[in-house]
Amino acid sequence: MELVIGGYSQGKLNYVLNNYDKNAYQVYDGASLALGTLEKIATENKVVILDHFHCWVKERIRQGEDPESEIMDFLDQRFEDLVIISDEIGNGIVPMDAFEREYRERTGRILVMAAKRADKVVRVICGIGQRIK
Asked: How many domains does the chain have?
């Protein structure tokens, strides 16, 4: 599994796509998957790229679900060839809104758990990837 993180609009998805043959991957948008579970993802013997993972986490929290256990169950069961792409949302000013604070905290903790399990972690800035694990 690979985890790719970076700021908003830093070229994370393009960075990932440039590393794979266009017929070798399937891209899923976390914002679209948010209304359902991760079980909707089908591998079709391709690398699965889960973009906007932070959006999936936010919506699952909003729905009162438990994204921490959902993603860990998902990682335990499937996808050796999985790339998770997420914005870094924990930097900057702490939001006044309680939900936004909870979302940032929980997303950060989920990314820490994912990074521990990942074979590779890359941070992308200005479209340039820097391997940090």
From this structure: 1
97 band by pLDDT with thresholds 50, 70 and 90: very high
Considering the entire predicted model, what is its pTM?
0.90
> Measured between alpha carbons, how far is 23 from 111 in angstroms, rounded to an integer?
28
Residue 106 lies in domain? 2-131
Helix ranges (DSSP H) in 1-133? 12-17, 30-33, 53-62, 67-77, 98-117
Distances (CA, A) of 118 to 3, 26, 36, 76, 80: 6, 19, 24, 12, 10
The CATH number covering residue 77 comes to 3.40.50.300
d(CA 6, CA 128): 10
